[in-house]
UniProtKB/TrEMBL annotation:
This is 5-methyltetrahydropteroyltriglutamate--homocysteine S-methyltransferase. Belongs to the vitamin-B12 independent methionine synthase family. InterPro entries: Cbl-indep_Met_Synth_N, Cobalamin-indep_Met_synthase, Met_Synth_C/arc, UROD/MetE-like_sf. The lineage of its organism: Eukaryota, Fungi, Dikarya, Basidiomycota, Agaricomycotina. L-methionine binds at residues 441-443, 494, 609. NCBIfam families: met_syn_B12ind, PRK05222.1. The keyword Transmembrane does not apply. Zn(2+) binds at residues 651, 653, 675, 736. Catalyzes the transfer of a methyl group from 5-methyltetrahydrofolate to homocysteine resulting in methionine formation. Keywords: Amino-acid biosynthesis, Metal-binding, Methionine biosynthesis, Methyltransferase, Transferase, Zinc. It is an enzyme of class 2 (transferase). It comes from Pisolithus microcarpus 441.
Length: 764
């Protein structure tokens, strides 16, 4: 019989219970016991729901209060010294690592976060060195397995594999320059052996060991480590199902198929082409193949016919007992359930599947492959065929004007009129900025009042006019605040925006929205990605009135603020019937019109944020050029329509930009701001090494933590930065927008930042 499986489930809870509970705990409004209880309730609901949808292999241990990589670090005693000896409970140490802590005499910044592969989820980066003393402090997978068992639900524990854990980590400060985290594998393995043998002793039948780094090019060099590690683990472990996702295994399958594993999971949504290769490699073995046919990364209903074809091929090669139907990855990246969506039309609802609906899909496909005679299964198949046909019909309706406009884009539309050096001079005259101009990344604190006003407007409890008034007052307050603090390029603060992508999606044609489609970005921060369903166009200016209102309040330059085409695309659920390139081009043309309109309205500094450009980079290097080609081009298409006097900015965060350095240069933005405050200076050295020619504002402090950086700290940072970046190219700004911060810390931090910039001016 073909079994069904789900690799992981959203943690937020159907009604955002976990977000609320965690934030209440942080705010001192709930106890640790309250939090533990909320977590247990959500786990119970998830397991029960999966069981009710007839999923055979239900995950446990994948739940997290903040991040699953952080969970492993906490359990493995990978706790940097700065978080110990502070007299904090283990739970508070855990949260301090995730988000920093500044209270009652304790002042520690958060650990670094990084994007989880090519998703918008961020994990907390383990810090490793020879001094790391791995110890199994607790066995989370076992605890949750037993918890489910107590509820009468049998589960398959999920853990992050040892090699991925190390590769995703970084060298701690004390480690020598050439230190490779993966060199710690022999020291880490005993911990995994203990963890796995405890699972086995508890009666666990099989365990899901995630090794997502196996889809990366560099994994080819780790073949020996994989062979020795899994040989050791297999001897003490329950049966191991090795899971890979988000891309293809390519030649790595050659060594993977020789590992002593019971099962292998591959992603057939992202990489359907790998099936033949993998089947051939594992056919002579006993390995069970888990087919990731239901997308864990998008929300379109699965096309059963396609999934069945893949499934039948696998069954023909391996037999029913060696095939599992699964989600392509954890469902962490999808919302919990369509059932909470009250505003989608029945037609739209019929297009989508969220996590719980996807669970039903894997179960149905598995039943179909097992030759089920159940009439409900047959009916589900019929219904799927009908839905898919209807969606295909809808997809064929296109907006001809938009398609024609994309086709008629000319090459001069991609380039500014003059080269950067000329523009820099023109802008210097036009803007009259001091040396080391200070600015922010755009958003100011999204206070409760702002969220309330928006909610009230949504429920028609206040009128449009009242809302406008409210937003105007907010903008005015933000402008006055920035003048008082002494910033040089001001922003309007983005109070009118719920989210930097959703806000634009709501005003563009071609998008639909969910009410409750929350997806975790980091910690307790969740976003509701819009869904692109058809051709994209702009009906009217989107930001001009707010920006020009803000500009009318001050003599200082007001920066217009837009989200770039690649980021809108990457942070939405894209269509799967046309290319990402085409969707990005359509977005770029809409934004180009907006940029030109802003300039016409007297806005001389325009920032087009592309924080997600790096995250959209394909995981396999062979695919990079194609992506970077259109990603950079579409950014340029969006921004290049202005005169030399207009200063374009762009912003990037959370990435290893070294990889895409030449593409960042090719964007040709006049100023870029980058997040790097938590990484080391390596990134800036890359810019130096390659001779980045335009202006740059390396984030001088970390906004993802409530912690206030001291003036001294910022000066130190400026000093180091200035040893690498020429003074006349340097801007001074935080590393990202301030929307998640409170006013108090914002005021303190920005004042320190401005003071540090003034100090730098004197010295320079
Ligand atoms: C994730 S990047 C955020 C950029 C946006 N302009 C903001 O400030 O918040
Ligand atoms: Zn950012």
């Amino acid at each position: 019989m073909v079994l069904s499986s789900v690799l992981g489930f959203p943690r937020i809870g159907a009604n955002r219970e976990i977000k609320k509970a965690v934030e209440a705990y942080w705010g001192g409004k709930a106890t640790a016991e309250d939090l533990t209880k909320a977590a247990a309730d959500v786990r119970k609901a998830s397991w029960t729901n999966l069981k009710n949808r007839h999923v055979d292999l239900i995950p446990s241990g994948d739940f997290s209060l903040y991040d699953h990589v952080l969970d492993h670090s906490a359990a493995f005693n990978v706790i940097p010294r700065r978080y110990t000896g502070l007299d904090l409970s283990p739970l508070d140490v855990y949260f301090a690592m995730g988000r920093g802590r500044q209270a009652a005499g304790v002042d520690v910044p958060a650990c670094e976060m990084k994007k989880w592969f090519d998703s918008n989820y961020h994990y907390v980066v383990p810090e490793l060195s020879e001094q790391t003393e791995f110890k199994l402090l607790f066995n989370k997978a076992l605890q949750e397995y037993n918890e489910a068992k107590g509820l009468g639900i049998s589960t398959r524990p999920v853990i992050l594999g040892p090699i991925s854990y190390l590769v995703l980590g970084k060298a701690a400060k004390e480690a020598p320059a050439n230190f490779q985290p993966v060199s710690l594998l022999p020291k880490l393995l005993p911990v995994y052996k203990q963890l796995l043998s405890e699972l086995k002793a508890a009666g666990v039948d099989s365990v899901q060991v995630d090794e997502p780094v196996l889809v990366l090019d560099d994994a080819a060099k780790l073949d020996k480590q994989y062979a020795s590690a899994f040989a050791e683990l297999a001897s003490v472990s329950p049966r191991i199902v090795l899971t890979t996702y988000f891309a293809r295994l390519d030649s790595n399958i050659n060594f993977i198929s020789k590992l002593p594993i019971a099962g292998l999971h591959i992603d057939l949504v992202r990489a359907p082409g790998q099936l033949d290769n993998v089947l051939e490699a594992i056919k002579p073995t006993n390995i069970v193949l888990s087919l990731g046919v239901v997308s864990g990364r998008n929300i379109w209903k699965c096309d059963f016919a396609t999934a069945l074809k893949q499934g039948q091929k696998a069954v023909a090669a391996l037999g029913e007992d060696r095939v599992i139907v699964a989600t392509s990855s954890s469902l962490l990246h999808t919302p919990v359930t369509l059932a909470s969506e009250k505003k989608l039309t029945p037609e739209q609802k019929d297009w989508f599947s969220f996590a719980l609906e996807k669970a039903a899909e894997v179960a149905t496909i598995a039943a179909l492959l097992s030759g089920s005679q159940d009439s409900k299964i047959a009916a589900a198949y019929e219904a799927n065929i009908a839905s898919i046909a209807k969606r295909r019909e809808f997809e064929h309706t296109s907006d001809d004007a938009v398609r024609k406009r994309v086709a008629s884009v000319t090459s001069d539309m991609y380039n500014r009129r003059s080269p950067f050096a000329t523009r820099k001079e023109t802008q210097a005259k036009h803007l009259d900025l001091p040396k080391f101009p200070t600015t922010t990344i755009g958003s100011f604190p999204q206070t409760k009042e702002i969220r309330n006003a928006r909610a009230k407007l949504g429920k028609s409890e206040i009128t449009e006019a009242e809302y406008e008034d409210f937003i105007k007052k907010e903008i005015e307050a933000v402008v006055r605040f920035q003048e008082k603090i002494g910033l040089d390029i001001l922003v309007h603060g983005e109070p009118e925006r719920n989210d930097m992508v959703q806000y634009f999606g709501e005003q563009l044609n071609g998008f639909v929205f969910t009410q409750n489609g929350w997806v975790q970005s980091y910690g307790s921060r969740y976003v509701r990605p819009p869904i692109i369903v058809s051709d994209v166009s702009r009906s009217a200016p989107m930001t001009v009135r707010w920006s020009s209102y803000a500009q009318s309040l001050t003599k200082k330059p007001m920066k217009g603020m837009l989200t770039g085409p690649v980021t809108i695309l990457n942070w939405s659920f894209p269509r799967d019937d046309v290319s990402r390139k085409l969707q990005s081009q359509q977005l770029a043309l809409a934004l180009r019109d907006e940029v030109i309109d802003l300039e016409k309205a007297g806005i001389s500094v325009i920032q087009v944020d592309e924080p997600a450009i790096r995250e959209g980079l394909p995981l396999r290097r062979a695919d990079w050029n194609e992506y970077l080609g259109w990603a950079v081009d579409t950014f340029k298409l969006a921004t290049a329509g202005v005169t030399d006097a207009t200063q374009t900015h762009s912003h990037f965060c959370y990435s290893d930009f070294g990889d895409i350095f030449t593409s960042i240069q090719r964007l040709d933005a006049d100023v870029i701001s980058i997040e790097f405050s938590k990484s080391d200076m390596k990134l800036l050295r890359t810019f130096q090494q390659f001779g980045y020619s335009n202006q740059i504002g390396p984030g001088v402090y970390d906004i993802h933590s409530p912690r206030v950086p001291s003036e001294e700290e910022i000066k130190e940072r400026l000093k180091t930065t200035l040893s690498i970046i020429p003074a006349d190219l340097m801007f001074v700004n935080p590393d990202c927008g301030l929307k998640t911060r409170g006013w108090k810390e914002t005021e303190a931090s920005l004042s320190n930042m401005v003071a540090a910039a003034r100090w730098a001016r004197q010295g320079a």
